[in-house]
Design a protein that fits this description.
Blueprint lengths: L1 H14 L1 H7 L1 H9 L8 H33 L3 H19 L14 H13 L6 H11 L5 H13 L2 H24 L5 H4 L2 H22 L1
């Protein structure tokens, strides 16, 4: 199960780029537009933002895995959590494919805390230094997102601090190509990722991976 979770997390992040375009496109554009006009290192700034974001994911994964490990000692629920994580992937896939729009309601979980984070993120703008880019990325990682929550549930299912962190690192690595490209191309990638056919194809693959995970449990 651990290896399957790492693969599922990576491809959920990679194929979930169609969701990232909508959720993170505005933030990526904001970061890009506030870069120093004379900088010759846009890649360094974009990488710093994204590595900060992934660091937050890794921390969330470690906390989720550690919490589940403590709970699992009293009441073994790892298989239940693994089943729940794959059901989340199925829901996410159907949402991306346009079949299950209500899945977006799960993002409401983090909207309250996000209101507290937004003023801190505003202080990190403009992103005119590498340090501020990292800070902005760390805060960006707390953006309410069903895709991220699916990864966190996978980390929960690991019931391990280290595996939870690794799962979210794999998830973050999967998200990196799309979000890095969006930052460097100043949003020109968004229309492509929002294409219905691409969303349907990506959603189908993610949902299929969730089904496969459930079948592995039987």
């Amino acid at each position: 199960m651990p290896e399957l979770s790492l693969v599922a997390a990576f491809f959920a992040g990679l194929l979930g780029g169609v969701h990232c375009a909508g959720m993170c496109g505005g933030l990526v554009s904001a970061f890009s537009l506030t870069l120093p006009g004379s900088t010759r290192r846009p890649l360094a700034y974009q990488l710093s933002c994204n590595l900060g974001r992934i660091a937050t994911y890794v921390l969330l994964g470690a906390v989720a895995g550690a919490s589940a490990a403590l709970f699992n000692r009293a009441l073994p629920v790892q298989r239940v959590l693994f089943a729940a994580s794959n059901i989340m992937l199925i829901g996410l896939g159907l949402y991306l494919a346009g079949v299950f729009p209500r899945f977006a309601m799960i993002e409401g979980i983090g909207r309250g805390p996000w209101r507290l984070v937004q003023p801190l993120l505003a202080r990190a703008l403009p992103v005119d230094s590498i340090g501020k880019a990292v800070v902005a990325g760390l805060l960006w990682g707390l953006l309410p997102c069903g895709l991220v929550y699916s990864g966190v549930v996978l980390a929960l299912a690991s019931a391990s601090t280290m595996r939870g962190a690794l799962i979210m690192a794999a998830f973050g690595a999967g998200t990196l190509p799309n979000l890095l490209a969006m930052g460097l191309l100043a949003g020109r990638l968004q229309p492509l990722l929002q294409d219905r056919r691409i969303r349907a194809a990506a959603g189908t693959v993610i949902a299929a991976s969730g089904v496969w995970g459930l079948l592995k449990l039987s």
